[in-house]
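Severity: low
Component: inverse-folding endpoint
Summary: output formatting inconsistent between runs
Steps to reproduce: submit the following structure tokens with default settings.
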């Protein structure tokens, strides 16, 4: 999944850099996208048909640390619904990667 994300970045309208985020306490975010103007989005990939609030642990930490630069946090999962877990935190079906611009 992350390889598909990296591939899609190559044809994005805006230049985006791709990173991985992990703290010393092993809290992580699978992919962090950063635009040239400093906006940040985090992406977590879950091989599950359900999403829990705890699945956003790394994204919430990234949101706190990035402050206003944090644009969005997304958990991609195998379910069917788009779900909100906060103003800038969403769970999206994995198929959204092919249908939506992140």
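Observed output (run 2 of 3):
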């Amino acid at each position: 999944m992350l390889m598909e994300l990296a591939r899609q970045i190559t044809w994005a309208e805006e230049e985006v850099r791709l990173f991985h985020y992990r703290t010393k306490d092993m809290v992580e975010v699978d992919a962090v996208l950063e635009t040239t103007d400093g906006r940040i989005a985090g992406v977590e990939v879950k091989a599950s048909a359900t999403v829990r609030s705890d699945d956003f642990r790394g994204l919430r930490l990234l949101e706190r640390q990035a402050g206003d630069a944090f644009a969005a946090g997304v958990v991609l999962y195998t379910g069917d619904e788009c779900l909100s877990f906060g103003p800038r935190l969403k769970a999206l079906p994995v198929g959204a990667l092919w249908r939506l611009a992140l």
